[in-house]
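Q: I'm writing a short explainer about Sulfotransferase domain-containing protein for a general audience and would like to include a description of its predicted shape. Could you first generate the structure from this sequence?
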Amino acid sequence: MTKDLKKCITRVSQFLEVKYTEEQHEELQEHLKIDNFRNNKSVNAELLRDLGIIRCGEGGFVRKGKSGGWREYFVGELNDEADQWIEENLKKTDLRFPES
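A: Of course. Here's the predicted structure. Afterward I'll give you a sentence or two in plain language.
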């Protein structure tokens, strides 16, 4: 995973034309590790939980850190409702989602 993260950081920094020292690169890799990301108060909606907007015990914003993990939760009727909502609300736009 670290190798993929390093490669991703390098690609993004090249795209943004930003140069990092090796030390900055390592700090950024550490900051972006899924466990650190999951524990980041700015990311995990801790304030919203403290304010009662999100119920305690509900899953946080960052779940497993796997691409496509939403498919485990977004099944059956919920998926059908979303498809219907998308069809009805986007039909007058040029926004299209790829067919799966």
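A: For your explainer, you could say: Residues 76-90 form the longest helix (15 residues).
Q: Perfect, that's easy to follow.
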